[in-house]
Amino acid sequence: MAVDTAITELFDAAPAGPAHPLDPLSGAEIERAGSIVLASEYSTSTLRFVMISLAEPAKPASLTFDPADAPPRQAFVVAYDGAEKMIYEGVVDLGVGEIVGWTPVPGRFPSYLAEHMEGVEKVVVEDPRWQEAMRRRGITDFDLAMVDPWPTGYYGAQDHYDNAPLLCRPLTFMRSAPGEHGYARPVEGVIVTFDLDAMQVVDVEDHGVVPLPRYAGNYEERFMFAEGNRPAFTQFRDDLKPIEITQPEGASFTVDGHGVSWQKWSLRVGFNPREGLVLHQLSYTDRGVERPIMYRAALSEMVVPYGDTAPTHWNKNVFDMGEVGMGLMANPLTLGCDCLGEIFYFDGVVNDSMGNAVTIPNAVCMHEEDYGIAWKHTDFRTGVVEVRRSRRLVISFIATVGNYEYGFFWYLYTDGNIEYEVKLTGVLTTGAIAEGEKPRYGNLVAPGLYGPHHQHHFNVRMDMCIDGPDNSVYEIDSVPEPDPALNPHSNAWITRETLVESEASGGRDWEFSTARYWKVVNPSKLNELGSPVGYKLMPRDVVPSMLQEGSAIFDRARFVQHNLWVTRYDPAELYAAGNYPYQSPDAQGLPEYVADDAPLEDTDVVLWYTVGAHHVVRPEDWPVMPCAYIGFMLKPVGFFDGNPALDLPPSAAACHCAPGSCSCAGHGHGGHGMPAVEHADAELN
C-alpha cells in the first residue's frame, strides 16, 4: 500500500496484526499458492496460472471474525493446461501448505493469460500471410503495426471447444510514425485467427483493401499540434487557474489494513484479478448501532456488443471481465491526475501465468470530496438560514482494456446514500472507409475514419444484508389512483408494491411510465413508524439492449435481457455470464442461477443490476473520448427514522445564521468585478 500526504505516519504506525478473512491475498500468499501447485502432482510443463485469488470463507465465518479463531487462509487457483486443453480449479490451504481441492473443468476455455496479451502481436507480425496482406495496402514498415488480440467470441461449430483450440481474432492498426496514435489508421478487412494454445497464426482473411485514413489523430502532448492532426489545435489553453484541494487536519477516514471507517460508514476493501475492486461488509453506524447494508458488492460482468456488419467489426462482442480480467488490467493511479486531494491508495496484487505476484501500485484510490449542499432551508419569516455541506467518500479504480478505459467508482454519502458510477473514456475502436462515403452502422470521426455503433452493459452484483441476511425485494410502481370515487380531481396517485416471490420472476425491467424502482427490506426489522427498514435501488442510464435473437451473442449475454435479476444467495454464483464465457456458445450465469426457482421472500437475496451506455459515436469522441458517466444509486427508504444527515455540523458561521448576519465564506465575487449583493429582508407579496 501507499499513502500520500500527512496521514502517512498515522497509517504506518498501525499494528500489522493477523489478516482478516476477507483481506485479498498478499504477494507472498499468491506466490506460496503458485509454488505449492507447481510442486504438486498436478503440475505439468504446460500448466499456466490464469488467476490466483482469495478463496473467500463461508459467510457466517467472516461475519463473526475473531482474530484468535480465524478460518484458514485459502487461495482459489484457476489454471490452464494448453496441451491438455483443460481448466483446473484448485483450493490451496496456505497455512498447512496443501492443495485441498483440484477439479478439472472440461468443455470450457479460460480468460486471457498474461503471455497472451504480450505475445500475440510479435507472432502475427512475423507471419508471411499477414505481411502479404499489409503489402497489398502499401504497408512495408511492419514495426509500426499494432495488433490487438480480440477475444474470438463464438460464431459456429468451428469455434466450439470440441473442434477448436483457444482462439483469438487479432485486428491490426498501423501507426504513421513510432509512438503515434495507431487507432487513427485501422487496417480494414484483415482478420487473423490465432491459436493461443500453440501461439501461432491459424489463418489470415483478407476481405479487400480499404485505404488507410490519411490524418493523424494524436492526443499526446508531443504530437498534438503537428500539421495534419485531427482535430487541429495550435496550443494548450492558458486561462485555467489552479484548483487545490487541502485538508489541513488530514482526511476524515481511518484505515486498518483493508478495513475503512469514514463518518458512520465502515467497510472492507478487496481486490482480485477478475473483478478488480470488491467491497465487503458495508455498514452504517446509526446512533451507536452498527447496521449492515451489503455483505459484498462488485462488478460481475460486462459485455460490449458492436452493431456493424463489416468483416472486422460484426464479431466484436467482448466480455471484458470474464474474457480478460478487470483487476489484471488495473492502472497504477497518479496523484493530481487520476485522484485529487488527500489520497489513500491500496495496491492491487495479481499473478502472472507462472504464479509470480505482480503488484499494481496505487490500484485503488480512496479520498473525500465536497459534494455541494447536503440540505438547506431558509425561514422567510425569521430570516434564519440552516445549510450543511455534503461530502462523499470515493473508492475507485481504472482499468485499460485494449482501447477503452473504464473507471469504476463507489460513492458513500453522509446521508446514507450509496452510488455506483462507471466513467468511460479512452479510444474508440475504429474502422476505415473510403473518403466521401458514409458508414451505415457508425459515424465518421475524421475523413476516412469512423466509429461503429456499440453498447456497453455492466452488471453489478450486490449481496444485500439490510439489518441482517433475511431480506425481501419489492418492485415499486407509481400509478394513478384506480378508483374514480377516490380521485374526484384526477390528480391522485399511489405506489403499488409487488413482491418478487421467486427466482423465476426475478428478472425485472424498468418502466418509465411508472417511475419504477426496487426496494430491499428486512421484514423482521421495523422502523419507529412501523414499516420494514430498507434501501431502494434507483435506476439511472437504463439502456435497452440492441442484441437480437438469432445473433451469436444473444445467448451468451442473456444477463442484459433484464435490467435487474434477483437470486437467492449462493457463494458459487458470482458472475452474470458464468465462470468461463470465453469462446462459449451457451447461456451461462444468471439463466442457470434462476433455473431452480428458489423462493426469495425473507431470505438472503442478491441483486444483479445492469447499467448501460448506448454509444452512437460523434466527432467529439475523437481522438480520445471525454468521459461518459453512467450508474445507479441505492438510497435508504425507511432505514432511518429521519434525515440521517441532520447531525452534520455547520462548516462555517454562514451555514447557521440569524437575520442580517449571513455572509459567504471564501473568496466571493459578483459578476464582472462587482461586489456580491446581500439582500435586505423583504416582504413576500
- Measured as a percent range, the helix fraction is under 10%
Radius of gyration computed on alpha carbons: 27 Å
Strand content: 35-45%
CATH superfamily of the largest domain: Copper amine oxidase, catalytic domain
Mean pLDDT across residues: 92
Tally of extended strands?
Answer: 34
By CATH, the architecture of the largest domain is named Distorted Sandwich
User: What count of structural domains?
Assistant: 3
Q: What spatial form do the alpha-carbon principal axes imply?
A: globular
CATH level 3 topology of the largest domain: Beta-galactosidase, Chain A, domain 5
pLDDT under 50 segments (min length 5)? 1-17, 667-685
Structure description:
The protein is mainly beta and 685 residues long. It folds into three domains: 27-105, Nuclear Transport Factor 2, Chain: A (Roll); 112-241, Nuclear Transport Factor 2, Chain: A; 253-637, Copper amine oxidase, catalytic domain (Beta-galactosidase, Chain A, domain 5), CATH 2.70.98. The strands form six sheets. Strands 1, 17, 18, 19, 20, 21, 26, 27, 29, 30, 33 and 34 form a twelve-stranded antiparallel β-sheet that branches. Strands 11, 12, 13, 14, 15, 16, 25, 28, 31 and 32 form a ten-stranded antiparallel β-sheet that branches. The chain has a four-stranded antiparallel β-sheet with strand order 2-3-4-5. The longest helix is centred in the N-terminal third of the chain and has 12 residues, at 27-38. The protein is globular and about 80 Å long. Residues 1-17 and 667-685 have low confidence and may be disordered.
